[in-house]
Structure formats: C-alpha cells, structure tokens
Amino acid sequence: MIVELLERIGRGVIFFLEFWGGWFLLSVKSLSIAFKPPFRIERYIYYLADIGANSFPVIAITSLFTGGVIALETYSAFHRFNAEYMIGAVVAIAMARELGPVLSSLLVTARSGSAMAAEIGTMRVTEQIDALEMMAVNPIKYLISPRVYTTIISTVVLTLFSDIIGYIGGYIVSVYLFGVNKTLYLRYTQNLTEMDDVYHGLIKAAVFGFLLSTISCFYGYYTRGGAKGVGESTTKAVVSSSMAILIFDYLITYILRLFNL
Hints:
This protein is mainly alpha-helical and 261 residues long. The protein has one domain (2-258). Helix content is 85%, strand content 0%. The protein has 9 helices and no strands. It has helices spanning 2-32, 41-52, 56-79, 87-125, 128-134, 139-177, 182-192, 195-221, 226-258. α1 crosses α6 (139-177), α3 (56-79) runs antiparallel to α4 and α4 runs parallel beside α8 (195-221). The N and C termini lie far apart (49 Å). It holds the Pfam family MlaE. The chain crosses the membrane at residues 12-32, 44-65, 85-108, 148-178, 198-222, 234-256.
C-alpha cells in the first residue's frame, strides 16, 4: 500500500516536472527565435485576423450580457441605499480588473487554443512537421512563434473591447431598464474608476494570452497516437489552459496587491 502510494506520487512529480520543463523550453524558443530571419510577416497578419478579429463577435456578445448581469445583480443592493448611480463604477471595475481579461482569455482558449492544438497535432501525426524539418524550416518558428505573439496582442486588444462593451451593457440595463440617472451614473464611474484598473486587466490579458497559446501549442507539438491522440491533446490543451488562466489570475492579483500596484 505504501509502495503504491509512493509510486503514484513519484509518477505525479515526474509528470509535473516533465510537462512544465518541456513547456518552458518550448516557450523560450518560440519567443526568442521569432527575431531571427526570415520573419514571415504575412503569417503574423493571418493569425491576428484569425485569433483576434474572428474572436471579436463572441467576446462582444458575452461581454455585453456580462455587464448587464452585473448591473442586474447589484441594483437591488444599491437600491436599498439609494445609490443606484454607483452601479457604473462596479461594472467598470469588475470588467476591467477581472471579468474582461478572464472571459476574453477563456473564450480565446475555447475558440483558438483548441484550434492551435488540433492543427499542430494533426501536422505532427501526419508527419508534416517532420517534412518542415527536412526542408530546413524550423517548425517552432514557423508554426508556434506567430501564434504566441499574435495571441498575446489579440487577447490584450480583445480585453480592452470587452471592458468597453461590458460597461455599455451595464449602462443599458441601469439607465434604460431601471431608470438610473445617467448623469450621476457616468460621473461616479469617472470619479471611482482609475486607469490602474484598466492596466491591471491588460497585464493579466497579456499573461493569459501567453499561457493559453504556449500550452495549446505545446500539447499539439508533442501529440502522439494518431487521430485519437489529436483529440486527447486538444482536450488537455483547453483544460490546462483554462486552469492556468484561473490560477495565474489569483497569483497576478495577489502580486499586484502585495506591491500596491
């Protein structure tokens, strides 16, 4: 019994170190090798459109209703104190600091992270990556680096739009559904919300974009086992990326609070 327990713990530790070690090496290579020619700018433009522009509609709809839900949930509490006009500040701060970056990153993970793992995994099992290596094309630079950099940029920009659209959703619910004074609503939002709230969210978005892209590409790059392996890699990529986003959300928040940033 004790021996089996120790074996399980040992396997878990080895798997943990193997995964994060391989992920770290792949991440460093993908970031550093991008600055070596040839640069292939067209691939970066393509992934900016695919990851960023094509993800905007679903993030816009989700953010609009998220802001509306925050306003709905907080109205009853503020109404007791005749402070309904402060709902705008709550919506703005919640979207900027937490919901904007987290929701945007999770949606990008579901839409684009899964596609990264599936596409690269399919190329691995069909030996297309081996063919790139035979043609003297670095597969990490060609396949992974553009995805990593464009995902970071796209996630930051999408988070900024998510913040704005979420606030609009809260404004619509508060002003047009509950009849809150729009002048006070906007004034208290301006007085209570700071740019630091936005900066914190954008920092998180950049980290989340890096995590979801590198983890998804890592699982795809080391796919084994044919079509079944591609499916397993895609599932693991989405689950691992989502967990990493939520874990690092807490860690980043704690660090920023610790240093009063």
